[in-house]
Design a protein that fits this description.
Elements (H helix, E strand, L loop, with lengths): L1 E2 L11 E5 L12 E6 L2 E9 L5 H10 L31
Antiparallel strand pairs: 1-4, 2-3, 3-4
Length: 94
């Protein structure tokens, strides 16, 4: 959701809600986000609303602790045969 202007105090608000339009639905241009920040109320009209992608939804759920992140398993280290070490003789080229 994008708001029509900056909502100072929204981040630290004690309560956040929606006021719907006359149609009874939350929609852009008519709906409003209302909030209370330390006794001061505020409200900002909704500019646009869009559906989250599945990746965005997962990210938000993880951010707010409602879902555990998927942990990628790192393969166990395996023995790798190393190359032989060859010592170079600095005097050999003379």
């Amino acid at each position: 959701m994008a708001l029509q202007r900056r909502a100072y105090g929204l981040r630290s608000a004690w309560a956040i809600g929606f006021v719907d339009s006359a149609t009874g639905s939350i929609c852009s241009g008519f709906g409003k986000v209302v909030y209370e920040d330390q006794g001061l109320g505020g409200g900002v009209r909704i500019a646009s609303i869009r559906r989250l992608t599945p990746e965005e939804e997962d990210s938000l759920l993880i951010q707010f602790g409602l879902k555990e992140p998927e942990i990628e398993r790192v393969p166990a280290p395996q023995e790798v045969e190393g190359a032989d070490i060859e010592e170079l003789d600095p005097d050999a080229g003379e």
